Amino acid sequence: MVDDPQQNILVIKLSALGDIVLALGPFAAIRQHHPDARIILLTTPAFKGFLEPSGYFDEIWTDTRPSLLQVSDWLNLKSRLRQGDFSRVYDLQTSDRSGWYFRLFGSQRRPEWSGIARGCSHPHANPDRDFMHSIERQDEQLAMAGIPSVPPADLSWVAADTARFDLEEHFVLLVPGGAAHRLAKRWPAAHYADLAQSLAGQGLQPVVLGSGAEASLAQEIISACPSAKDLCGQTDLADIAVLAQEAAGAVGNDTGPIHMAAAAGCPTVVLFSAASDPSLTAPRGTEVEVLQRDNLADLSVESVAAALRLR
Predict the structure, then answer these.
(1) What is the pTM of this model?
(2) pLDDT (tens digit, 9 = 90+) per residue, 175-186?
(3) In the chain, which ranges are continuous DSSP H helix?
(4) Which domains occur in the chain, in start order?
C-alpha cells in the first residue's frame, strides 16, 4: 500500500490499560508507516487525554461501547465511521465488538481492514494467534498488513508534574491492587506490607499506586510501614508513567499500572497467579522479572525482594 497524503487511517484499540500500553509500539509503527496520513484512534474515554500528546494520532475519537439495545448509539457510530472516509483500518482490538464495527461500513464502502473480521482485506491469518503474546500477535498482524517493523513502547513523550506528591529521592512503586472481580491475581496486602518494611529498612520509600477503591490496601501497608506513601486515587496515567521513570523499581500484580512501569524502563517485578498466563500477557520492558505461583499467597516476600533489581 503506497502512502497517500490524503489517506484517512483508523486505528481501533478500546481495551484496558495494560492492553493500551502493549499497543504503544504498534501505534508508533502505524504512524511511521503513514507519516502524512490523517490517523484517528478509536478508543475509550479513559485513554484519550493520556494519548493525545503522543503524536501518533491526529485525532482521538471515544467509543462508549454501546450495548445491542442502544440502537441510536449504534446508528450514530455507523454514521461517524462511514463519514470518516477511511482508506484503511487497523483493528488492534480484534474482538467481536470491533468485528461488528467492520460490518457497520457495509460491503460497498468498506475500507482496507487489518484484523480478523471475516472477509477483511488484510487478515491476521494465523490460526494460533490466540496463543501468542499480545506483542508478537500485533507485530505479526501488522507485518501481514505491510508494516514489517514495530518498535518497543516509548513513553518519552509523557509529561507530568510529580513534584506535587512530595516523595523522597529514592522510592519504589508498589501496585497491590487489580481487577476487583479477579482477586486471585493479587499478592496478599500483608505481603506487600512486609516488603514495604524491608524497602524502608534500605532507605527506600514505598509508594503505593492504585485506584481510590484500593485505598484500603494502601492503608494496610502504611499501618505496617508508616514511611510509605499512599497515592491511590491521586494519579492519572501520565503521573504513573513519569513516576515509573523516576522510581528505583516497581513491584505489582498483573494489572495496568505495572505494565506502564515496565514500559517506562523501570526495574519491574510482576506477580502472576494461575489466574493469568504471563506467556500471553506479561508486561514487556528492558528490566522485567516475572514471578508466578498458582496461589500468590505462596510467594514469599523474600523471593520478591530478591528478584527486584533496583537502579
Answers:
(1) 0.94
(2) 999 988 899 999
(3) 17-22, 24-33, 48-51, 71-83, 96-104, 134-144, 189-201, 215-224, 237-246, 256-263, 278-281, 301-307
(4) 8-144 (3.40.50.2000), 162-307 (3.40.50.2000)
